[in-house]
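A student in our group prepared the protein record below, which I am reviewing. This is what I was given:
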Amino acid sequence: MQNCVESPLKLKLLLTFLIIVSLTACATRRWEGVQSEYNADPITVAVPGKLAPERVREVVVYTFERRQWSIVDSSTDRVTATLNHRRVNAKVVAEIAGRTIKLMDYSTDSEGNKIIALAWVKALEYDLNKNFERVIGQ
């Protein structure tokens, strides 16, 4: 009787593990081989209100740093950040043009293959929108 109880539990645990591994792989490799296609039409974030360019840059830097990204270059119209995690060398450039921020992705896997860290870019998009809302509300 004990084997009947353990077997379904072990099966559920194994399936859960496989689903998590599959989702992690999809989050970082979904766009493998088509980085140039993603960057031709990247995720964008609208800059709300009439924030000064320096304040927009500060919000972008803050957003990267809150997610443990390292800022490697920063100017009024561009912030470049990197994150090395889970065999992914993520590099995202936030291009600030007028009232729009483009999140360009130049990430690679541990073997140097170009990939899109889509889940991470989407997390940055979400955080940027939330951080702009917070700044406008102050």
